[in-house]
Every structure is written in C-alpha cells, then in structure tokens.
Amino acid sequence: MTPPSRSPEGSARPGAGRRGEPPVIAVDGPAASGKGTVALGVARVLRFHYLDSGSLYRLVAYRALSQGALIEEEGGLTALATGLAASFEGERIVLDGRDVTLAIRTPEVGAAASRVAVFPGVRRALLVRQRAFRRPPGLVADGRDMGTVVFPDAVLKVYVTASAEERAARRHKQLIEKGNSVTIESLLRDIRERDARDMGRAEAPLKPAADAIVLDTTGISIEASIAFVLERYRQISGEARTET
Ligand code: DC
Questions:
Q1: Residue whose CA lies nearest to ligand 1 atom number 6
Q2: Nearest by Cα to 149 from 173, 174, 131
Q3: pTM of the prediction?
Q4: Which end of the chain is less crowded, N or C, counting CB atoms within 10 A of the terminal residue's CB?
C-alpha cells in the first residue's frame, strides 16, 4: 500500500499542494470502475504512496459483520471506526493481527461498506487516518470523496467511470479468477444498488469534484488510462515548475 518513498522527479516536488504539502492525485469513481488499478499503477510509476480509502470502510464493515454488530447503528459503528486496529503492510491489510486482505474483498463486505459509509460519524472517524497517508514524495488517493472532501487541494483530480455493464463484467472476471462463483446479473444489481447509495447519500456523496477530469474507461485499457493520468500530472508538474 505504501511504495518506497523516493521521488523520481527529484527534490523540486512538482505540483506540491497549496501549503507546500506533498502533492496528492485524487482518483475517485464508482465501484469497479478500474480506479484502484489506475491509482495503484500511477503510484508505482511516480513512486508515490497509495491510499485505497475504500479498504478502510470495508474494514469497518468487516469488523461489524464479524462482531454481529448492527450495520444501521451509527454510534457503535463510529466507535468501531475510531478504534480500528488496522495496519497496511505492503499490499497486506492486517486487522487485529489477522491478514484480512482477501476477506474484505467479497461483494458482501463491499455492500456493507457502502452502508456503513453513509454515517457522518464513521466518515469523520476515518478522515484523520486518510490524511495521514499524505507523505513525501506524494500520494495517489483512491475512493469516492478524495477530491471533494478528504484532499480538496489535490493537484490533480480524476473521476474514473465506466458503464455499469462493463464494471459488472470486469468484477465478474476478477472474482471468477479468485475462485468465487457469482453471476454477472447479481453483480450488476449490486453495482447499481451501490451506485445509488454512494451517489445519493447526504454526506460526501460520490460525484466528480468541480475541477475533476472525467475519465470514462469503457472500452479503454488500464495501461492507456494510467498513461492518461501520468500525462496530465506531468503537464501540471511542468506548469508548476514554469511558474516558480
Ligand atoms: O472502493 P470500494 O469498493 O472498496 O469501496 C467500498 C465502499 O466504501 C463504497 O461502496 C463506498 C465506501 N467508500 C466511501 O464512502 N468513500 C470512500 N472514499 C471510499 C469508499
């Protein structure tokens, strides 16, 4: 989750945040849009840190489900989010000393994560944790509200999207490869429900930031999407350097 901390761009810190903080590239978008793969690919090339903010909501949901806690009870969920004993070790996610990297990736946990994410208390509890990922030389942050709420001063905001059908087909392929048996129809239904909840909630709803670039990846390869984001970042970095 945190690639090595060395900037290939040298010490000029191109596109640094407004208060001289490390630059953030915000990659938001709906479930299974490919934003995670794009964000991770960009982070690897730039050797930036990487935040998969959805995993935090998934951890809260997973913990609640495994404790038999009510997914509708804000107070309990907020306490759970505040005291979350989770750590990110490379690509592994450890919760209460147990490797839960794969366990939090199931469609059930994803749906429960979307339900716990509607609560302002839960979102507030996870805010500081997310901002702590902003470290030199920079951060690529992936989620739903990276550009709108968590890092409003991100130097580049990309909203990655794709048709619901294409997203369901991609998720289906991923899950089948991991040995899960699931139908495209049920995934499409889940994705539509999740979109409606993530976009319709009152607190930090999923929507492109006013200054975001919308990247529709329907029919576009991951490599081309990564190249597009890198090109935009390099343009911005170049402009920042010329201004200084
Ligand atoms: O990206 P994901 O599928 O792992 O996210 C799971 C859920 O977590 C998603 O449906 C809504 C919630 N989420 C959120 O509300 N805000 C974020 N920044 C990231 C995820």
A1: 54
A2: 131
A3: 0.88
A4: C
